[in-house]
Amino acid sequence: MDLQQIGASHPRIKQVIDLQKNTKPNPQKLFVAEGLWAHNALLDADTEIATFFWCPEAAYSDEANKRSEQVAERAGQSFRVSEKTMARISERDKPDGLLSVARLPLWDPALIMLPEDALIMVADAIEIPGNLGTLIRTLDAVAADLLVLTNRRTRLTHPKVFRASHGMVLTVPHLEFDDVAEAGAWLLENHVTTYLADTGGTRTYRQMDCTGRTAILLGNERYGISRPWYEFGFEAVSIPMLGRADSLNVSISAAVLLCEARARKSGW
Question: N or C, fewer C-beta in 10 Å, the chain?
């Protein structure tokens, strides 16, 4: 490919570094994808690719060379970079010579069409990017219909979210609400039975009624679910802890609860 060669001082290189640091405002929902598997995910999900960076010297397979042409054709802009520049902008040891800035899909609450047996997860104030990515991967595994985010503590565009979700952040529908009251009202308006995952719940998760639309709400890794959620009167359910620990990691809890809900809905 005949691509323009750019160096470390180019504005697009600086943009990648800013996105990797995840510190500046990101209203366009841009994120960085690195390596062959990530670019396969971009192509499979028909993701909008803003900028593609190609370093043929760092490519380790024929497949990477083939993908580079496909990504360059799809991208709004494509550039060639040196191995030194690629190493500077990449967080992976060997990104196969492929790195892109892409854009997450946007979802509108008014356009979300929930099936009558929808399975939803509400993530309230999740703080660790790896946990959020793992939750999204679990949602994909159980064919859940929607992720709802409230009290956001980490961005969906964080590089670790993309990696931990194994690219599923591109395909799992998601909504972000700035206000818990707005999110709760949306769930009620859509006739969603919502359960709060709480170690103090008087009923266990095996006693959930998962007929109809069901949402499971998980809270912050340290502080749990924020207080405003309890004002809706949603039922709290717990996962029995039989050892000395008082709770599970939030991503493990999500897997237990979501698999149980899917089993109920699918008659496993």
Answer: C
Beta bridge partners of 216: 121, 195
Predicted model pTM: 0.92
Does 31 share its domain with 66? yes
Residue 95 is part of which domain span? 4-103
Percent of the chain surpassing pLDDT 70: 100
- How far apart CA 110 and CA 118 sit, in angstroms, is 16
Question: What is the DSSP pairing of strand 77-80 with strand 146-150?
Answer: unpaired
pLDDT in tens, 220-261: 999 999 999 999 999 999 999 999 998 889 999 999 999 999
For residues 118 and 201, state if they share a domain.
Answer: yes
What CATH number does residue 177 fall under?
A: 3.40.1280.10
Contact 114, 47 (CB under 8 A): no
Q: What is the pLDDT of residue 201?
A: 85
Gyration radius (Cα) of the chain, Å: 21
Q: What is the pLDDT of residue 110?
A: 85
Residue by residue, DSSP assigns the chain as ---EE--TTSHHHHHHHHHHHT-S--TT-EEEEESHHHHHHHHHTT-EEEEEEE-GGG--SHHHHHHHHHHHHHSSEEEE--HHHHHHH-SSS--TTEEEEEE-----GGG----TT-EEEEEES---HHHHHHHHHHHHHTT--EEEEES--S-TTSHHHHHHTTTGGGTS-EEEES-HHHHHHHHHHTTEEEEEE-TT-SEEGGG---SSEEEEEE-BTTTBS-GGGGGGTPEEEE----SS-S---HHHHHHHHHHHHHHHHHT-
Question: Each residue of 95-114: pLDDT tens digit?
Answer: 899 999 999 999 998 889 99
